[in-house]
Amino acid sequence: MTRTARQLAAGASVLAALLAGGWLWGAVVAPGLWSAVALLVAWFLVIGFLTTRLSRRRPELKLALRGTYLAAAVTALALGYLTSVRETVVDEPLVTGAPASQATPPGAPASSVEDLLAPQP
Description:
The N and C termini lie far apart (about 90 Å). The protein contains three helices and no strands.
């Protein structure tokens, strides 16, 4: 196996471990949001520890292992921010008009239009 093939296999292995563990711990095992976040953080720490140990034993794989781990961690943080921290709901009053089907036809007598400024009973 060539050096490039070993590096690609190492990077793919790190990515596969992160994805498989992330799915298992975050979607299958965890009962709620915060437990899923805690388990995913723990899983990333475990994979980071193992990646560091392996890259010390095999220096030629250091860039592939750590680069893949770093790219996956940054991507996971960005997706976590975009899907849970960032607000996507606007809580502002929305002014709406009457539906066109309820609009007064052109040329209708003025008496059919309610005077909102008139004194109310």
